[in-house]
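WARN  no MSA supplied for this record, continuing single-sequence
INFO  ligand: HDE
INFO  echoing inputs
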Amino acid sequence: MTDAKRTQQENYQAQDPASGPLTTDQGVAVDHTDDSLRVGERGPTLLEDFHFREKLTHFDHERIPERVVHARGAGAYGYFQPYESCAAFTQAAFLQDPDVKTPVFVRFSTVQGPRGSADTVRDIRGFATKFYTSQGNYDLVGNNVPVFFIQDGIKFPDFVHALKPEPHNEIPTGASAHDTLWDFVSLQPETLHAIMWLMSDRAIPRSFRMMQGFGVHTFRFVDAEGNGTFVKFHWKPRLGVRSLVWDEAQECQGRDPDFNRRDLWQAIEAGDFPEWELGVQLVPEEDEFAFDFDLLDATKLIPEELVPVRPIGRMVLDRNPENFFAETEQVAFHTANLVPGIDFTNDPLLQARNFSYLDTQLLRLGGPNFAQLPVNRPVAPVRTNHRDGPHQSVVHSGATSYTPNSLGGGCPAIAGADAGAYRHHVERVDGETIRRRSASFQDHYSQAALFWNSMSDWEKQHIVDAFRFELGKVEAMSVRARTVEVLASVDGTLARAVAEGIGVPAPRQGADHHKGNSPALSQESLRGDGSIRTRRIALLVADGLETEHLAPIREALSSRGATVEAIAPHDGKITGLDGSGYVVDRALPTVASVLYDAVLLPDGPPGDSPLLTEEAAVRFVRDAYRHGKPIGALGSGVALLERLGVAADAHGVVTAPSASSRGDGAPSSDDGEEFTGRFTEAVAAHRHWNRPALRH
Ligand code: HDE
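INFO  complex generated
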């Protein structure tokens, strides 16, 4: 099937650099670009050197303003395909025919940090999708958590100012652990539900490919007869929802600041195309008031136990951009980019976004013609009466650019009844002009508690740890104490556990009356296909270790989709126990445990493992253990674990006896398979909790 977006983009490709010599912007060939034109060898540079001036001028103007939020991101192209026709509730053309693939571009992002900040910070992740549909572009500009911090868009500048680096010293970069954010949170309890998500492991995803996406607001589907149905959008990743451990995430910021970006790029290059299922929660209009929260309140979710998520299609990302700036940086999303069949609701946060996104693109992309940029161009035909403006790249012909006209034959004509024109949903709205929040928006605690109640023990512990970390970095004790007070209205146990860690008095009273529980909110229920596809496994090797029998294990893991890399103290080859050379993929100094999901230790000669004297290898294994990662050890690798203080019987540590101890010198294929099977299960489980501490 042709990809209409890819075909369109071919028209915008730069000249093949191999097709001719270097030129100026005017196409004049250049034979010298290393010395400016000057008077004598040591004299002043001449103004008439147009190549020099053009080169510097262009360079001076290479930067555009970064996004005010979501500045750091990574994007990819792909397609969306519905499972079946959704005509029963929406007329959107791209949701009708399971044979039609609609091209998409997706940009994932962090919120707080600038363009050059690290990926693995504690933050919400943006998940913005542009569908290039036959009826025009539809943008679903979502996040990886289903609720937002505020209810009304007029508070957005306040919230973002509190979250961003503090203005006097521009600290901290890419972090929420500072006074102004928590000052705001403690004074604005509507933030609490989203704050609970931010303190959970959802805010440190292992991969963009392993996180959910949410439209957050309640939108409206509209069918061909004009009937509306409320809808919440959900993206569910095929690989399950997986997170990093906080300590790991922090170290990763230094080891690989591009960790999530690289992961997305590499997976697509390797043909491991990331995949999500699109699901919808549908609420008939007559049930608008059937819930104990307001559907227009973006700080609330609809528990899946009340309204199940109905899968309607899948999205696959299968193409990396050609050029980061041209595509990922210049892509312009807008919540008001809608197609017939999808409409807004009166959610006051959404209404504000409908203003903000267009406004921000005008500044960022330098004028109103940004929809002409290749990444933003619809594949649907565009015929407007808009003219001129900076960077106009369309040559409009003819004398008329107004409606009505007779001189241009009345063209472009207004769409007729059958031309799929966008019609806003008809809704009667009546009221006084007021600045007031509806009473139905006032409960800020029940769903924050619902989230807390729904967590497994390890998730709860991580949330407490996160609060202690964040508030422990807050200098103002009054802010710490006030935050604990508001947390007490969510859950007394949580507030007391946090208070204990940050040196403020435990709240006298704490809520224990919020009883709700929604198992669908726990990561425990989001294991995806349960596979180990694309997990990165480090095989630690060194001269003298047993490498002869590793091939079947590596093959078995690779055939299940994992990537196994042999890591040794030096690059090149190591000499295995049998004297043969074994190819090294990475040298230890260039990597670290935080860049892998699991570790495998081979067998070796009796006695101490050669890895024991390698500090980086020792740290590798100990870090993997501390971070709950699966560890597989064969033969003397098990003894190595013991020497490193790792409990060989801890959760997720998988061992097999030495080949030599069985006397045959080689693991039988049964043993190998049995070990690989157990190790695969441990890798699929991702992280293992409740391990005894490392012995020193
Ligand atoms: Fe955004 N948001 N936002 N936001 N947002 C932007 O638009 C804004 C909100 C989200 O990869 C900006 O093009 C307001 C919710 C994503 O290019 C800006 C409000 C959700 C992205 C803006 C919100 C989001 C943005 C900055 C409150 C999840 C990155 C640059 C009323 C449903 C898109 C830009 C990309 C970006 C405004 C709240 C998601 C300033 C005023 C809720 C994923 O227009």
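The chain has 17 helices and 18 strands.
INFO  checksum written, moving to next record
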